[in-house]
Design goal:
heterodimer; A: mainly alpha; two-stranded antiparallel ribbon; B: mainly alpha; MetI-like fold; 11 helices
Chain lengths: 313, 269
């Protein structure tokens, strides 16, 4: 009887490499991680660096050519009244959209986290995932149909004899307008609609972690429903709300399609970036505008991290 | 009592209305594809017709964007599948210096608003004098698709027992055989789901694309142009239905192949 060797003979290059990977696991790790890292490092981080660099350039006002010299002139332009208005308007809209999303998302998230069982759980999961993933542009388009002057909202209101309500809402100064689809109210509704699922998911995740025993303890100690809600559920759900607000805030701040399709002609940061790099041909100013949401989000993320929001992501 | 197991009526109504709010608008896209009115969004439609499907089919300006979108989505998905799987394999089990930073780097392209990703790429192309082409579109799309594949693959890798790879090695398989016969089949459905979602995301992406496409039009860019300057409005609805289907079918399919481990598909767009 011949003894079977404990170590099989090598069968070529593949086996030799296997041996190398076994002796030096870091080689395998480096081989696996290098291509994606190079891609992200060059394409993405490189581009972000280009953005930053571009924002410190300026444009020659007479020739319209980008002057590749370091200057803070372009950033100073952000503080001109018409540009500062854009930033301020965008922040206000983002904050309002975030607040409204949190309010509308709560019943859905709470029901899905606590009461939905079995088949209903799946219904709620898909019911939130499908709108989240389905085509962004189609969703925005649907609202253009809904909010149009001759559209379904006006029709329903007139059938109910409530046409005057819409007229009254549109007559509100500053946020009203000619029709819903050309007013700030319209822009606001579409923003809330499109980003709502991004609020529901983290909120639901944090509500699912609230132990039922705590609610029972609260009830045993004599708390009413609303007391339990205010003093137990809400504080425990807060990290989820903050996590969701990161998405709704950041996404609203950067969007430029929605205000272009539904809303007044007033500009938001995203639209300013788009127009400056396109028709205006002022790449440095567009880049400087794009840096604004990055800075705001970095501050926001730092605050959210302190509030423990990242455990709920 | 707050602890009983039946939801209060107000909560049921709130949740139901919320879900309805999320879903009803899409129905109108379908309805308006059949309207006879092409100059306004009149409701209710004055009449119904199916002729717009034929009109859309015969419009020569729809096909090139359609083909370009399919090409871009297919190539970006393929690239993201390779890169996303590699990085998830490295991140799933091992701990190394800089791991946290890498996971942030992967998520950043979708965590930051699309306009920033788009504008960054636009700045880079301008600084390096890279002309816009199909390739520049793909560069952008593949970058934000990596995270989708990564999310799905890394969740599956964490659930896989490390023992199966060791068993495979003990039985004499080399690293490549273990990958081909053990790891890949186990990752299969997660990669399929990730690929489907990446395809859906790429197919309807418009924000980054407007910054990287130059004169070319993908299907969403074509749609955006029609929204800003409408021509035959119902034709736009027909295209919207196509885009909607091209995103919703992969999503449902991804859900179907990964259900059970429900936390994998999705995880933040």
């Amino acid at each position: 009887m011949t003894a079977i060797p404990a170590v099989l003979p090598e069968r070529g290059l593949a086996d030799r490499l296997t041996g190398l990977f076994w002796r030096r696991p870091n080689v395998l790790l480096a081989l696996a991680i290098a291509p994606p890292l190079i891609w992200l490092g060059v394409v993405y981080v490189g581009s972000l660096a280009a953005l930053l660099l571009q924002s410190f350039y300026s444009i020659d006002e007479f020739s319209g050519v980008v002057v590749p010299e370091f200057t803070l002139k372009t950033y100073a332009e952000l503080f001109r009244p018409q540009n500062f208005d854009i930033i301020w308007r965008t922040l206000l809209m983002s904050a309002l959209v975030t607040l409204a999303s949190a309010i509308i998302a709560f019943p859905i998230a709470y029901f899905a986290a606590r009461y939905a069982k079995g088949r209903w759980k799946a219904v709620f999961y898909l019911g939130v995932m499908l709108p989240l993933w389905s085509s962004y542009l189609v969703k925005v388009y649907a609202w253009k149909l809904i909010l149009a002057k001759e559209g379904i909202v006006t029709w329903v209101a007139e059938k109910l004899g409530a046409g005057f309500v819409i007229d009254a809402i549109l007559a509100i100064p500053a946020i009203g307008g000619n029709s819903l689809s050309t007013s700030y109210i319209g822009t606001f509704i579409v923003f809330v609609y499109v980003w709502l699922p991004f609020m529901i998911l983290p909120m639901q995740a944090s509500l699912e972690r609230v132990p039922t025993s705590m609610l029972e303890a609260s009830a045993d100690l004599g708390a009413t429903r609303s007391q339990t809600f205010r003093t137990v559920i809400l504080p425990l759900a807060l990290p989820g709300v903050i996590a969701g607000s990161i998405f709704t805030f950041s996404l609203t701040m950067g969007d430029y399609i929605i205000p272009q399709i539904v809303g007044t002609s007033a500009r938001f940061i995203g639209l300013a970036v788009y127009q400056q790099q396109g028709t205006a041909g002022n790449l440095p100013l567009a880049a400087a505008f794009a840096v604004v949401p990055i800075v705001i989000m970095l501050v926001y993320l730092a605050l959210a991290k302190r509030a423990g929001a990242f455990d709920a992501l | 009592m707050p602890s009983d197991n039946r939801a209060p009526l107000s909560l049921k109504i709130g949740a139901g209305l919320g879900l309805a709010f999320l879903h009803l608008p899409i129905v109108l896209i379908f309805l308006y594809a059949f309207t006879t009115e092409q100059r306004s969004y009149q409701f209710p439609p004055p009449g119904l017709t199916t002729k717009w499907f034929a009109v859309a089919w015969n419009r020569a300006d729809i096909w090139p964007p359609m083909i370009l979108s399919l090409q871009v989505a297919a190539i970006s998905t393929a690239l993201a599948l390779v890169l996303g799987t590699l990085v998830s394999a490295a991140m799933a089990r091992t701990k190394f210096f800089g791991r946290e930073q890498i996971s942030l780097l992967i998520i950043l392209p979708i965590a930051l608003p699309g306009v920033i990703t788009g504008m960054s790429l636009r700045s880079a192309f301008a600084l390096m004098d890279i002309p816009f082409s199909t390739l520049t579109i793909i560069l952008g799309h593949a970058t934000f698709c990596i995270v989708i594949v990564y999310n799905n693959a890394v969740a599956r890798m964490r659930r896989l027992s490390g023992g199966i790879m060791e068993a495979s090695a003990d039985l004499g398989a080399n690293a490549f055989q273990s990958f081909r016969y053990i790891l890949l089949p186990n990752l299969g459905s997660a990669l399929l789901a990730g690929g489907m979602l990446a395809f859906a995301l790429s197919f309807d992406e418009v924000i980054v694309t407007t910054f990287t496409a130059g004169q070319q039009s993908t299907l969403p860019i074509w749609m955006l142009q029609e929204l800003v300057r409408p021509r035959q409005r119902p034709v736009t609805n027909v295209v919207a239905i196509v885009v909607f289907m091209a995103t919703i079918i992969p999503i449902l399919f991804a859900y179907y192949v990964t259900r059970g481990g429900s936390d994998t598909a999705g995880g933040g767009k």
